[in-house]
């Protein structure tokens, strides 16, 4: 009869499953909870510092920093913001100073874009036109996002009669053509300020954001953590602000970012048609409208503001696409 081995608590006996036995030293045992190399915990590649899982926003920023579309569009938008705030950094002239003796002339030293039909420096007016376009786009987007998010979020959260009424109102606004509505509503405005144009965009733009916010809130409020907060006695305001809003705002941000470029184009369209901004305001739409009759004799007066408008709208649309790809987990 074989002699029994003495019991050694420092060793662990593990069955091999093949009828034999395998001795493992306690110092060689590795638990599943031990963090992996590089600070990655059980969560795998999604773990953050010290093994903590990253949030949706940190994951989105992590992806955006490595997206060339986001980097290119971000640089263009940053440049537009800088020249909108301080246009004199790259344009020292006066956009309202015109000399009819130089009307429709081409590029000259100190005037790289030439002159328009009124003898105004195209380069200076193109630079200063960015201020108006970016200001209108940003203000209209903020107004649309705030109004649409509040109305749509409340309708999606409370439902009932409020939701039914808001749905019918948004249907009415969706039936109004934007350009036709602008021609009708803004044709009676005589002010040269940008606020009537911004107000019109907010008036007709909030239903889209409202629909997005309503659907996002309805989806989020069905999650378990919202039901748990309600069961613990949390008030409606606390549930909305602490649990639903942070998790339902991502689709609104994506749509608003893309819509910003659309509002810039809409302002130029309305100004081109003569119902948006009016002289002496400096706007790309006004310059495009003024240069259209001289497209054969002075095409440069039309191409430069048109190119600036196209690049700006494209940059914001590209930024919105990059943000959408980063915030949508289904696209990962």
Catalogue the unreliable spans.
9-46
Strands, count: 2
Largest sheet, spatial ordering of strands = 1-2
The Rg value, from CA coordinates, equals: 30 Å
Overall pLDDT metric? 82
State the share of residues found in helices, binned by percent: 55-70%
Query: Which word captures the global form?
Result: elongated
Tally the helices: what do you get?
A: 11
Class by SSE composition? mainly alpha
The percent range for strand residues is under 5%
In angstroms, what separates the terminal alpha carbons?
64 Å
Specify the biggest β-sheet. Answer: 2 strands, antiparallel
**H/E series:** EEHHHHHHHHHHH
Describe what is shown at a glance:
The protein is built from eleven helices and two strands, in the order E-E-H-H-H-H-H-H-H-H-H-H-H. With 332 residues, it is mainly α. A two-stranded antiparallel ribbon has the order 1-2.
Structural description of this entry:
The protein is 58% helix and 3% strand. The protein has helices spanning 56-64, 68-85, 122-158, 160-174, 178-186, 195-220, 224-231, 236-248, 250-272, 284-291, 300-327; strands spanning 11-15, 21-25. It contains eleven helices and two strands, in the order ββααααααααααα. The longest helix is centred in the middle third of the chain and has 37 residues, at 122-158. Helix 3 (122-158) packs parallel to helix 6 (195-220), helix 3 (122-158) runs parallel beside helix 11 (300-327) and helix 6 packs across helix 8 (236-248). 31% of the residues are buried. Residues 9-46 have low confidence and may be disordered. Strands 1-2 form a two-stranded antiparallel sheet. The chain is mainly α and 332 residues long.
